[in-house]
Amino acid sequence: MQEKVNLDFLIKGGTVVLPDRVTVADIGIQNGVIVEISPMVSTPSKEIIDAQGIYVMAGVIDSHVHINEPGLSEWEGFQTGSAALAAGGCTTYMDMPLNGLPPTVTVEAMNLKLKAAEAAGTHVDFALWGGLVPSNLDDLELLADAGVIGFKAFMSSPGDTGEGCFKEVDDVTLYEGMKILALKNKVLAVHAESEEIIVALGERLQEHKGRRTPRDFLESRPLAAELDAVQRVLLFAERTECPLHLVHISSPQAVDRIWEAKRNGVDVTVETCPHYLMFTDEDVVRIGALAKCAPPIRGHREKEGLWERLAEGKIDWIASDHSPCPPHMKLGSEEDYFAIWGGISGAQSTLELMFDEGFLQRGISLPLLSRLLSEAPARRFGLLPRKGRLAVGADADLVLVNPDSPYVLQPEDLLYRHPQSVYTGRSFRCRVILTMSRGKIVYKLEEGVGAVRGGEWLRSNPAQMLKRRIY
Ligand code: ZN
């Protein structure tokens, strides 16, 4: 006798964002997987979610999040960080290897990271980046085999977080490391700023002239520092054939150089972050400490240029670079802006920012936004077709967005360890109302995050990783 099979969830009548179009449809979910998408699903369901007038999108995949555990749990942690991500519509995040002690530069450290994740629990799925630092060339292969999604390197100092902290690479380490990663077909993510330029300019401004204001900080990290590092690492990628990903690119000038390299066959992708699309240097001066980051937020021309490149498909994806710290590290006189810790806390707002500013205000299409927020990173890291888009057979990782639910973001809305963000006080027209991870509701606006933290570690599967550019 055939057993009657019911759906676990039926999401009814939502405006569904598919890879190639937006359409009103029902979505049937069973055992954590999407089993039906059609104008009218008639299979009986245990629960029905009425989504009329609501947008349904693939869950955000945030490839750039600093969770800081183990070692610096007071900055951010798996539990609080993943709660904030779930509330922002994110269903998979990738933890960056620095700002934890020890940083993820050996398999031993990676296992400590996994232990911390297991102890805290995570509301949604996650993957781990490993690090490339001057001391660990011999560890790269082992880390790759252990399942890191890719590697991160800094061309400029990431800042001192204590003994054993993450260090920037010299050019030789970078080049040698990329040769090893090319053989393992692992993506190297690079923070591209010239250490030589920013150290020299920073010292000159601070020591000789005593200048330490936000403006001086911006002046100490000019566009030339980003462009110099981008060109250098693009050259190394061309020579080594190492898959390269440029993180948090702040300028259209850098995007253009990366695009040109890509057209010439270099295996490279590029991300930018919401803060480079939402703010200008004037805002940094006005906002102060909460807007300090590196590379710094640029001028109006750069901001608008990034939006143009994004609309043209020249930026591969958006990541938050959620980089929180305890509030006291963001205090201090604005007159000594160099001493304030850099990093922007914002992962909970990524989708709402892009939906509001990108779609509602600037008319960027939702399939493109969904590609930028979910599909492109999923593809790059071998998570497609399981994750990254709404499709039959994919994990039921999705988010419901009310396009007409205006609110002003308050600290009490934030689920980070420290409820501070550069986006508090901002008006949003849209709002994430529900997030589902593998068919389980992990966040509801009225109820907050669920009690169960069932997020899983996604080991990278090198066999699935694409070798060539993604468009
Ligand atoms: Zn970062």
In the predicted model, the low-confidence regions spanning at least 5 consecutive residues are 465-471
Largest sheet: 9 strands, mixed
Any idea what the radius of gyration is?
Answer: 21 Å
State which percent range the strand residues make up.
Answer: 15-25%
Structural notes for this entry:
- The protein is of the alpha/beta class.
- The chain has two domains: 95 residues, Urease, subunit C, domain 1 (Roll); 325 residues, Metal-dependent hydrolases (TIM Barrel, Alpha-Beta Barrel), CATH 3.20.20.140.
- It is 31% helix and 21% strand.
- It is built from 13 helices and 19 strands.
- The strands form three sheets. Strands 1, 2, 3, 4, 5, 14, 17, 18 and 19 form a nine-stranded mixed β-sheet that branches. An eight-stranded parallel β-sheet has the order 6-7-8-9-10-11-12-13.
- A hairpin with a 3-residue loop joins β18 and β19.
- The protein is globular, with a radius of gyration of 21 Å.
- The termini are far apart.
- The protein binds zinc ion.
- Zinc ion binds next to loops.
Keywords:
471 residues; alpha/beta; Urease, subunit C, domain 1; 2 domains; eight-stranded parallel beta sheet; globular; binds zinc ion
Short description:
The chain is an alpha/beta fold and 471 residues long.
